[in-house]
Amino acid sequence: MMVSVVALARSRNLFAAVVLSGVYSFLMATVLVALDAVDVAMTEAAVGAGVSTVLLLGALHLCKSEEAKPAHRPWLPLSVAIGTGALLVYGSFGMPEFSNPLAPIHQHVVPRYLQNEVDLPNVVTAVLASFRGYDTLGETTVVFTAGAGIIALLRRRKKGKRAEGKADEK
Amino acid sequence: MKNDLVLRVVGKLLIPFILLFALYVQFHGDFGPGGGFQAGVMLAAAIVFYALIFGVPATQRAVPEWLVETMLASGVLIYAGVGLAGLLLGGNFLDYFVLDKDPVHGQHRGIFWVEAGVATTVAGVMLKIFYMFAMRGRLED
Amino acid sequence: MFGHFSYIVTVFLMVAGLYIVIARGNLIKKLIGLSVFQTSVYMLYIAPGKLVGGTAPILAPNFSIYSNPLPHVLILTAIVVGVATLALGLALAVRIQEAYGSIEEDKILARDNSVELAEDSRL
């Protein structure tokens, strides 16, 4: 996964970058299955490697360009990125170790969710739709708003020419 | 691409299975991995697959634009409707316990309708975005 | 040290995504870098929830230890919202391409500056 991200950063052909991002999403889905997150892995594989790649290819076809040679030397962004990374790694040493049953993430609310008051074997669906249903309502609204925003951005008048379409916007 | 025999045959064989699998994932979200989001994305992916092989105008005859826009909006309305039904029957907003005489059965009913609403909206949005990107390039020629 | 291996991988992916966003000028490359950054955040949430010896959080009579289902719920929402944001960003990039003629950041800024200079010199 790390190799594919480095290759993605260095490649200048945009089509190769899009394909590499699909590969990266697939690898991430595999890692998620290894971490026992089966619902999330299914969603990441379908959304990241499926729909996201199709959208990127569609946009690439409309934009028709290849990445230009970078004009600036990359030393400043590289040092900022590495500095941030070092700080984050130093901060993460205070977090609980991998697979520690006494970590705070496993206390409080999760034992109650696993008690299964709603008689549904899939706990993730039960939490998503019943225990935290309000958040899912908000998320559905966000998806709808994104669709409405794209309609507003990319709609064309059916009869007019392109100039007329531009003159109609404020 | 619709002149390629292999793609046409494989597409006609696979697309019904993808649609069936999407329905399976939607309804079995209670017992195994799955649920509304995955099912909606798979539904959209099946129709995008059809559009890639047979062209966007043929797909728009099969799944017209007004249907996609209706799916977009009605999913959110179904979700909010379930919440309002909870209100009207005496509980809080989005309360599933009051939807049936047996509270656990009420939960099942509520979750079923909520997941259906989510799948409809997600499928509608993904398909609409694909149509927008495809039609944009077409009109520019 | 081995106990924190997952955090190191997560931070590496995060930093790589950040580097792509700030160091590359092409708009579509920036959006891909943003999605890489988002994927690393998914890993940040899900890795601490895993219990070695446990199983996926689907209740069955012959398992007793389950991995934590709460991060799964949050990340499921985050994935779908992430793809919605990506689609909106791509629509904006397409419109910028039509209005400015290119999606390289330097060229867009140069055209904006030249338009501003022309307007200032007219006043």
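qc> Chain B has a mean pLDDT of 85.
qc> done
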